[in-house]
Amino acid sequence: MKKIKVLIVDDSALIRHVMSEIISSQADMEVVGVAPDPLVARELIKQTNPDVLTLDVEMPKMDGLDFLEKLMRLRPMPVVMVSSLTERGSEITLRALELGAVDFVTKPKISIQNGMREYTELISEKIRAAANARVRPRRIPGSYSAPVALPPLRNPLTSSEKLIIIGASTGGTEAIREFLMQMPSDCPGILIAQHMPEGFTTSFALRLNTLCAITVREAHGDERVLPGHAYIAPGHSHLTLARSGANYVTKIDQGEYVNRHRPSVDVLFRSAAQAAGKNAVGVILTGMGKDGAAGMLEMRNAGAYNFAQDEASCVVFGMPREAIALGATNEVGPLSALPAMVLNYLAANGGRALRV
């Protein structure tokens, strides 16, 4: 069996040791080198030719972002960022994903041994996904072009009862950004479940809000779902959809993990099936695993119309593949085309206007 070769880059000797033990404990992985900073890492990359690089966000001698930018330009390879749970750490991590990092993990809490088994599984899954991921072309933060002009809805009220429900995981932060940046200000309300730890979704929503024509916010629960607004599940809770009289509202639930995730895409999709039925449009984007597939099938059975991102444009074609295999999707398309596909469907199938 060919093992996944992993190079660990972190300025903390303790983190390098813990990460080495975690990776070496997996039968299908091997640590081919450890580096305390990017300068050492640069030489080790030449010597070891790793399949995956784990990269600390904040390091001496050369910032992790500067190193990542040079790496993705000169020698593109799968990178998993290792981030601290801080506001600065989350902002840097989001910029790293923009530059082409496949995914990220938070730094292990060394003092809490009870959670190390789950943490080991998490890191191992992300490294496996990264090893098989499509490395995206590098993007310079702040270099985004203006959103592509898409057909406006015939009447802002025409689709006020329609909703767009999105689920994503690995590679999803950039896929969601690309999708939302093409949404016009009169689009239906959007609910999003993206696999992301607590502490990162706030920065993610704020970042998208500065880039998009629509309003993007982290969901807090009991909000009326408004056209031209997107609500992102907070990293600590499931996001669900409910009806309150004539309106749709968000609900936040800190219940059990589903498919080992909270927020879970399945939880959001199932709530959309129950609350919105045929008024929902489902979109499943890049991600590892199968979270969302069963929930999307429930949406389709309830009358929703569903879209999946195609394999060629996915960073990891896991979640869309599972949904397609279950027969949960109506159409499959590349990420660049999905916004227009969704809006064209909505323009042709507007729902009855809700009372305002």
Structural summary, described in words:
The strands form three sheets. The protein has a seven-stranded parallel sheet, sandwiched between helices. It has a five-stranded parallel sheet with strand order 2-1-3-4-5, with helices on both faces. Strands 10-11 form a two-stranded antiparallel ribbon. The protein has two domains: 4-131, Rossmann fold, CATH 3.40.50; 163-348, Rossmann fold (3-Layer(aba) Sandwich). The chain has helices at residues 13-24, 38-48, 64-74, 87-99, 116-131, 172-181, 201-211, 265-275, 293-301, 319-325, 338-348, and strands at residues 4-9, 29-35, 52-56, 79-83, 103-106, 163-168, 189-194, 215-218, 229-232, 238-244, 247-253, 280-284, 305-309, 331-333. The longest helix has 16 residues, at 116-131. The model is unreliable at 141-147 and 351-356 (pLDDT under 50). It is α/β, with parallel strands linked by helices and 356 residues long.
